[in-house]
Amino acid sequence: MPNIQQYNFTYNDIHNTIRNTAKTIAETGFEPDFLLAIGGGGLIPARIMRTYINRPILIVSLSRYSDETGTAPSSQPIKLQWLETDIDLTGKKVLVIDEVDDERTTLEFTLQHLFESHPGAEFSAFVVHNKKKEKKGQLPEQLKHFFVGEEIEDYWINYAWDADNIDMFGK
């Protein structure tokens, strides 16, 4: 992507940011019973977080596109996969994980649905990167904690796990 400012985050960058945030989370005394990855971007960060907070990983998956080609943006995220109804989170603490808080619409949508479908659970959230910009969505008031690995400018992000050519991240 020529002529636009961008970040190229390596696996090492992400791992170090998550390790540092895991220390911060531990210092608050927050001990989740589950990690919940928002797929696709939250999957790898959730697995890395599990290295430091060894809890089971639950997964929800959303799409920001309303057609099969992935080219027509939807006004709100669309559920592709959600928690099975037999998972009882009553009295449990859950850390919801995503890679980036860009517009906050995905995080808001996910958290609202989690609070509605699991009213007896305590939810907190972690994003590896938070873009410093005005958000379209809001965090629910009942969110216990909001952890951010790194505050970044509103530039395009290239994550190593999205790369067609992983060698570009070594340069």
From TrEMBL:
Molecular-function GO terms, alphabetical: glycosyltransferase activity
Record keyword Amino-acid biosynthesis present: no
Phosphoribosyltransferase domain mapped to chain residues: 13-159
Pfam families tied to this protein: Pribosyltran (PF00156)
Keywords annotated in UniProt: Glycosyltransferase, Transferase
Gene3D superfamilies registered for this protein in UniProt: 3.40.50.2020
InterPro entries: PRTase-like, PRTase_dom
Domain of life: Bacteria
Protein name: Phosphoribosyltransferase domain-containing protein
Higher taxonomy: Bacteria, Pseudomonadati, Pseudomonadota, Gammaproteobacteria, Oceanospirillales
